[in-house]
Design brief:
By secondary structure, this protein is mostly helical. The protein is built from 8 helices and no strands.
Length: 217
């Protein structure tokens, strides 16, 4: 597992930016569909792009020795898969792809545990990342990820995949913390990726509130 640290910074950044590209595409597509429908929608493509982006971002977090990223993706990744299932997409993926998607994070974590001392040193005792910054970044990722926990609970109770107003409020707050963390870490992937979503989160909040007001009328 130590060999992964021989991967060039350029390749690592390329993986990170590609992951953020998929996250940005999902946000842009969902925003466009919501503007078109004049209400907040949860399109299937949003969750497909989420899974691809999360898969790549998980790899990026491991290569960057960034515990906060790995933690955030571990939580949200399986919620993305649940939404794929709720949209009827999961059963169409085939057993091989389903197994790969389900097993990859688990295998990666098991490999990390196998080399636990190295990863504890890299994640928590890295001189380039002060411990307080690890806590701050992890808090941001947890808050940002909780939006999907909230989305899952909300959707599960209604037996359909949806993106409620509270989801966008949590997104906005969590994104603010992650941008600050990215600035401290001089991480262009985090800064650019989160900045793009900022406008979409605000716009979805506006659309959601307008939708609620129209329903009340």
């Amino acid at each position: 597992m130590a060999d992964i640290h021989n991967i060039s910074a350029g390749i690592i950044l390329a993986i990170g930016f590609t992951a953020q590209l998929f996250f940005s595409l999902r946000t842009l597509f969902q925003w466009w569909k919501s503007e078109k429908a004049k209400k907040v929608v949860s399109p299937s493509a949003y969750w497909v792009l989420s899974v691809i982006g999360s898969y790549l971002f998980f790899v990026y977090g491991i290569l960057r020795d960034d515990f906060s990223i790995v933690l955030g993706q571990l939580i949200s990744y399986y919620i993305y898969l649940w939404n794929l299932n709720a949209k009827g997409i999961w059963k169409r993926l085939g057993l091989v792809l389903q197994t790969i998607l389900l097993a990859t994070p688990v295998v990666a974590v098991l490999l990390m545990i196998q080399d636990a001392q190295t990863y504890v040193a890299n994640f928590f005792r890295n001189e380039d990342i002060p411990f307080w910054l690890v806590i701050f970044g992890s808090a941001g990722q947890i808050i940002f990820t909780l939006r999907f926990v909230y989305q899952y609970i909300y959707s599960h109770r209604r037996h359909q995949s949806t993106l409620p107003t509270g989801f966008w409020g949590i997104s906005l707050f969590g994104s603010s913390v992650i941008i600050a963390y990215g600035i401290f870490r001089l991480d262009p992937v985090l800064i650019l990726g989160q900045s793009f979503g900022f406008v979409a989160y605000i716009r979805n909040l506006v659309i959601g509130f307008k939708e609620k007001n129209e329903v009340k009328k």
